[in-house]
Hints:
The complex is a heterodimer of chains A (254) and B (310).
Chain A: H1 2-16, H2 22-28, H3 30-41, H4 46-71, H5 73-81, H6 84-88, H7 94-127, H8 133-164, H9 168-185, H10 195-207, H11 226-250
Helix pairs in contact in A: 1-7, 2-4, 2-7, 3-4, 3-7, 4-7, 4-8, 4-9, 4-10, 5-8, 7-8, 7-11, 8-9, 8-10, 8-11, 10-11
Chain B: E1 6-15, E2 18-28, E3 32-36, H1 43-50, E4 58-63, E5 66-67, E6 79-82, H2 94-104, H3 109-122, H4 138-150, E7 156-160, H5 168-183, E8 187-192, H6 195-199, E9 204-209, E10 212-218, H7 219-223, E11 231-237, H8 240-249, E12 255-260, E13 263-268, H9 271-283, E14 287-292, H10 295-305
Parallel strand pairs in B: 3-8, 3-9, 6-7, 7-8
Antiparallel strand pairs in B: 1-2, 1-4, 4-5, 9-10, 11-13, 11-14, 12-13
Amino acid sequence: MNAITAVARFSFWRRASGLKLLGPSLVALLPCLMMAIILLEEPIDAFDLYRDYMVPATLYFVLPLVCMFIMLPVLSELYEKGSIGYLYTRPAPRWKMLVGMYLGAFAATLPVFFIGVAGPMLLGLASSDSASFGEWISLSLAIFAILAIAGLAYGSICIFIGVKTKRPIIWAFVVLLGLGSTMGSLPGAGQEFSLHYYLISLAYKWCGITGSKTDLFSPLESVASVPESLFILFATSAAMMAFTAVAARQRDVL
Amino acid sequence: MSAPALRCESLSRWYGEVQGLAGLTVTIESGIIGLLGPNGSGKSTLMRLLTGQIHASRGWVEVLGERIIPGTYDIFRRIGYAPGEDVHFESERSVDFLKLMARIGGDSAQQARERADKALELVGMASKGSVRLNAMSKGMRQRIKIAQALLFDPELLLLDEPLNGMDPISRRKTLDLVRDMAEKGNTVILASHVLHEVEGVTDHMLLLHHGRLLAEGRLSEIRELIDQKPRRATVRGTELSKLGASLLADDLVSGLEFVDDGCIHLDTRNLPELLERLQIAGEEGLIHSLETDDQELEMIYDMLVGGSAR
């Protein structure tokens, strides 16, 4: 475990030290800002606004961008600079280093997701009459859990892209925003091929959103069950990390 | 009988149309081996193949009796490798970088700390453990690269252009370290494009050119054939006019050219003696950096390939 924990700690501080989380945190607070503007202009209940509009917005926009900002560069940077050679010439299997990098970077996304969830909750608590403190906490914990599970799944995809391709940004846009957010928000059978379908399904079940007020996104025609969603998301994470290990053996360090 | 340090058979690597290494067949038993060649000759490609960082297009390589392919890892407890690339773990303190490298190898936090301290001491950086890598000079980072290669007391040390950017004192200490390693019975492969750097520690060399093994054997045999063509050293430091005058007076330089206040070109027909004098000046703190051209190596190439090397 020494190798995994050491690399995970290194990876976490590499992503979280200094002001590196400032950009992703500002992105995570965009729904909070939108919520504040709407609350100033519309007589709408803050709890409903957050649950029905901002939770999907967070999942569709904030989640992929945060994953790309934090998790994509973890390995792609080391490959670009050739520094990965220092790690791969250690007496430890490569998969341990990949898992350590993945877990460390994933841990760095958690404070950002926390900020993205805590901001709207505090704003809502300050302005809403209809929902109790307990309801806000329960909703916030649910969305935080969904974001964390999503971070594991999309993070593993980012790690794979970082090892497999030499143009990680382009591929990340295609996969996370194209196949993820966009395909997951379009009506039709294709929706089920997007991880977002399962994330939104979890949001339906755990956060109680129905999509009925969401004009931006197509409501789900059928909702996946919680076990099915969790299985798909965790299996994707595991499969992508296995593919990453194969890609790391195949890719030359130049 | 122990396995040879290195054995390659028809080892080749192409980068698309470009030939990085072509059909290298060689066996190295032990000692210090200079891997010489100009930039692009295949030195770094060979180093990467020896450490399983790239796939061979053809052929195979064994290091300390173990076949090396990408993903091989146990052997790195016996091999220390200092890559040619700079250390890009910028914000890490040097001791933390070394601890990380040791912990990846399976050490506990305490063991890693001990190994890191020992390695820093070996490269003369014991007092620089808390300095961040991005605050270090290139020469200091070179020594940290060597320190990480020494962490596990390797039987085989692979150094890719280790003296680049080092001041004269660091160069001497590094070469002393290489000699010490060899005296303990270890093998060191030292890649360089500057002949006299390697010549200072070994007479055994592999000469690569355009990815091919041009020569292998005793440098002294070839060296005797080199004529006394002038060579150039570029020195950066302080009180250079005084130094230049003294070198002229002692007939060690045939010409000198001041580039600016802190930089001087010295032309000489006796490079080894000039370097010895500059070494002494370096130890007095007058010299910050020293570079020599690789004309010597080019001359050897000219002799070996009939003037068509370049």
